[in-house]
Amino acid sequence: MTCLTFMQRRSFAAQKAARTRAKMKKTRGELRCACGAQRQPGRHECKACHAKYVREWRKTHKMSEAARARDAARSYANVYKQRGLIAPQPCTRCGAPGTEMHHADYSRPLDVEWLCRPCHVAEHHPEATVCTSCGGPLDTNRTRCRACWAGYMRAYRKRDVARGTSEETSFAIVGQLSQGA
Fold it and tell me: Per residue in 20-78, pLDDT tens?
């Protein structure tokens, strides 16, 4: 496979952006997908249309073997979690509630360690000591400093409200994101 030139990549990006804008314009202010079904909050398409898009996209963007193993382990563990066969626990490192599953070995999908978001970020990115936005120092295990994170969340709320999501819903979503990050 040959590499795309800069102009080809830029052209592709512009075409994709135009398609996305057209979809968003079709459904702006509505909670309906272009196909007429109920769309997911914060998205411009329903689950079925998104799944169809991902199936098409996956044909040209194959997953590596390592990515497949990670995806299979996550899916397997999530099914067990949804069925109540494994239950979320407090963070094993700091004891915080609201944890995520961490697989040390993807070949053992049910062997999970429950980590809060900051501890999970520290596990995967131990070298993260500078903000990815401004380059300033990080005082916690995040990818952005507090000031950049606050700006990011303000922009997220503004974008949600502009898309037609009520302010109450947007604040609830932002609250969940702030707790998880």
Answer: 777 766 656 566 787 888 887 778 788 899 999 999 999 999 999 999 999 999 999 99
118 domain residue, yes or no: yes
> Could you read off the pLDDT of 127-176 as tens digits, one per residue?
767 776 677 777 666 677 778 878 878 887 777 777 776 666 655 555 55
Phi, psi of 18 (to 5 degrees): -65, -40
Looking at the domain assignment, is residue 88 inside a domain?
A: yes
Burial of 155 (0-12, 13-18, 19+ CB in 10 A): exposed
Quick one: DSSP state of residue 73? H
> Looking up tokens 């994709």, which residue turns up?
16
In angstroms, rounded to a whole number, what is the distance separating the alpha carbons of residues 106 and 66? 9
How many structural domains is the chain composed of?
Answer: 1
Domain range for 87 is: 67-124
pTM above 0.70, yes or no: no
In a domain, 139, yes or no: no
- Is residue 130 assigned to a domain? no
